[in-house]
């Protein structure tokens, strides 16, 4: 079953583009997490989405959140993608799409990698899910709107 609002975000450990292992649980009690699953590095839609997150990264940080992108691409691909577009946030390599499947971030009959963004609060609870293959900017705008609502509470 897909992860939904109110669920505890499933923990995972995945390699980042810098070679370090990132554990979702390490952010608990420290910052919210905007976890976005995207299909593939350096494709038009994924580049547009990632650059939109890049352009608002400081706003996300000021809202108390870390941005983390996840795809099935290799660490080397992530390194090249991050360098080419000056992406300041973490990109994780989910070989075999194990974590993507655990979150239910699939599209087109569960066969294609989906484009889904999760806003996870400091306690590890999913507060918002945005699922759209083609509204690249919406992933950024909606996640930021939700974070700002959470800050205001």
Automatic annotation (TrEMBL):
<dbReference type="GO" id="GO:0005737">
    <property type="term" value="C:cytoplasm"/>
</dbReference>
<dbReference type="InterPro" id="IPR000866">
    <property type="entry name" value="AhpC/TSA"/>
</dbReference>
<keyword id="KW-0793">Thylakoid</keyword>
<feature type="active site" description="Cysteine sulfenic acid (-SOH) intermediate; for peroxidase activity">
    <location>
        <position position="46"/>
    </location>
</feature>
<dbReference type="InterPro" id="IPR036249">
    <property type="entry name" value="Thioredoxin-like_sf"/>
</dbReference>
<keyword id="KW-0575">Peroxidase</keyword>
<dbReference type="GO" id="GO:0034599">
    <property type="term" value="P:cellular response to oxidative stress"/>
</dbReference>
<comment type="similarity">
    <text>Belongs to the peroxiredoxin family. BCP/PrxQ subfamily.</text>
</comment>
<keyword id="KW-0049">Antioxidant</keyword>
<dbReference type="GO" id="GO:0009579">
    <property type="term" value="C:thylakoid"/>
</dbReference>
<keyword id="KW-1015">Disulfide bond</keyword>
<comment type="subunit">
    <text>Monomer.</text>
</comment>
<protein>
    <recommendedName>
        <fullName>thioredoxin-dependent peroxiredoxin</fullName>
        <ecNumber>1.11.1.24</ecNumber>
    </recommendedName>
</protein>
<comment type="function">
    <text>Thiol-specific peroxidase that catalyzes the reduction of hydrogen peroxide and organic hydroperoxides to water and alcohols, respectively. Plays a role in cell protection against oxidative stress by detoxifying peroxides and as sensor of hydrogen peroxide-mediated signaling events.</text>
</comment>
<dbReference type="Pfam" id="PF00578">
    <property type="entry name" value="AhpC-TSA"/>
</dbReference>
<feature type="domain" description="Thioredoxin">
    <location>
        <begin position="3"/>
        <end position="152"/>
    </location>
</feature>
<keyword id="KW-0809">Transit peptide</keyword>
<dbReference type="InterPro" id="IPR024706">
    <property type="entry name" value="Peroxiredoxin_AhpC-typ"/>
</dbReference>
<keyword id="KW-0560">Oxidoreductase</keyword>
<dbReference type="InterPro" id="IPR050924">
    <property type="entry name" value="Peroxiredoxin_BCP/PrxQ"/>
</dbReference>
<dbReference type="GO" id="GO:0045454">
    <property type="term" value="P:cell redox homeostasis"/>
</dbReference>
<keyword id="KW-0676">Redox-active center</keyword>
<dbReference type="GO" id="GO:0008379">
    <property type="term" value="F:thioredoxin peroxidase activity"/>
</dbReference>
<dbReference type="InterPro" id="IPR013766">
    <property type="entry name" value="Thioredoxin_domain"/>
</dbReference>
